[in-house]
Amino acid sequence: MALIVKKFGGSSVASLGHIRRVAWAIASAKEKGEQVVVVVSAMGGETDRLLKLSEEITSMPAGREQDALLATGEQACSALLAITLESLGHRAHSFTGMQLPLITDENQSKARIIDLKTDILKKAINDGIIPVVAGFQGVSESGNITTLGRGGSDTTAVALAAALKANCCEIYTDVDGVYTADPNICPKARHIEKIAFSEMLELASLGAKVMHVRSIELAQKFQVPLVVKSSFNGERQTWIVNEEDIMENSIIKGVTLEKNVSKISLIRIPDCPGIAHQILEPLAEAAINVDMIIQNASIDGYTDLTFTIPTTDLNIANELVNKVAREIKALEVRADNNIVKVSAVGIGIKTNPGVAARMFKALSEENINIEMISTSEYRISCVIEEKYGELGVRAVHHAFGLENKNNHQKEQ
Ligand code: ASP
Ligand code: MG
């Protein structure tokens, strides 16, 4: 019997009506003979609502308490779905991360999974009970409730699929898969039927909100068959597969806009060994993800260093950097959150010369100034002024011929 992990995102369980529809879908999969393990997010908007509540009390809530608070969203939803399934005549049990247990490190709000026990789930499955697991949460070795970062229920689902050796992990959301760009920004964005793990990883890291980055890493590592589907419209889907399984490829697969990005510049710092380390080490210790890093050519033994970080970490990063800046006698620290990052992603980049130039041309034709550039095998990213973000995405999407000529036409 096929064992399938089905994960339902916040928009799929946004109301009791939605939850009922999800319960019907689970019931019909079960009737078709699938063994199902369900993972849920909090009801749509709930995590933000809880965050706002704690923000009303303080801008710096204790990480331990913030995670205890946020985890309730998923817990409530898993119980509501189990109650609904039972009301439809099926046996279902909800499980929190702590009950499994899903054990994580101690990093509150961005914990990583260390171990995942499946005995309790296997027993439920054997007893004919549908397990409904609260996503996004775990328990640390010291016993604190932790969360895996925004969107982390995807990671719970993939981790469970890997641990249970499930036949497939299905991610249900409010769109029918992955598109060449956000259709809200690019109305002519095209649906993608198959995308490589490496491309999906870049798209997700670069602001495409479809999936949690860590979930794709895990799926690739454990070779979990992974598919993104719409909860309420079953026609199309996107499979995330190995590079070798994609026969034909366009150079660029998709274009993203990342808004949660800010930059910090240190002006006139000594150009000598150890300085970059001294500046960036405290950020690493605080688990702040430093992304693009640019150091200028040095003049008279001095240089400038600029890097980007998530805007959500700007306040704390700024504090840490200012401390080091005083120690190394930097002339000035400048923080700027008025920027966004536009990226073109595709496995064709590494084998096709001139891709970057094509992207720069597309931006320049719209008179958009590029403030920072970074490239890798799979992507080219440009930091530009925030107000040009959407225009930049459309320009790059057009330049690589990604537009759908006919809105009803599927990708070949
Ligand atoms: N509820 C959490 C969030 O909104 C986790 C998730 O949905 O995956 O980020
Ligand atoms: Mg999500």
Notes on the protein architecture:
The chain is of the alpha/beta class. It has two domains: 172 residues, Carbamate kinase (3-Layer(aba) Sandwich); 168 residues, 2-Layer Sandwich (VC0802-like). Helix content is 33%, strand content 26%. It contains eleven helices and 22 strands. The strands form five sheets. Strands 3-6-2-1-9-13-14-12 form an eight-stranded mixed beta sheet, sandwiched between helices. Helix 1 links the parallel strand 1 and strand 2. The longest helix is centred in the first third of the chain and has 25 residues. It starts with a strand and ends in a 13-residue tail after the last helix. The relative contact order is 0.11. The C terminus is likely disordered. The structure holds aspartic acid and magnesium ion (MG). The site of aspartic acid (ASP) has 12 residues, from loops.
Q: How many beta strands in the DSSP annotation?
A: 22
Based on secondary structure, the structural category is alpha/beta
What's the tally of helices? 11
Bound molecules: aspartic acid, magnesium ion
Q: Please identify the oligomeric state.
A: single chain
Q: Provide the number of structural domains.
A: 2
CATH class of the largest domain: Alpha Beta
Strands, helices and their partners?
Blueprint: E1 3-8, H1 16-31, E2 35-40, H2 46-57, H3 63-87, E3 92-95, E4 102-104, E5 113-116, H4 119-126, E6 130-134, E7 137-140, E8 145-147, H5 153-163, E9 168-173, E10 178-179, E11 191-192, E12 194-196, H6 197-205, H7 213-222, E13 226-230, E14 237-241, E15 254-258, E16 262-270, H8 275-285, E17 293-295, E18 302-309, H9 314-327, E19 332-336, E20 339-345, H10 355-365, E21 372-375, E22 379-385, H11 389-399
Parallel strand pairs: 1-2, 1-9, 2-6, 3-6, 4-7, 9-13, 12-14
Antiparallel strand pairs: 4-5, 7-8, 10-11, 13-14, 15-20, 16-18, 16-19, 17-18, 20-22, 21-22
Helix pairs in contact: 1-3, 2-3, 5-7, 6-7, 8-9, 10-11
The chain binds aspartic acid and magnesium ion.
Aspartic acid binds next to loops.
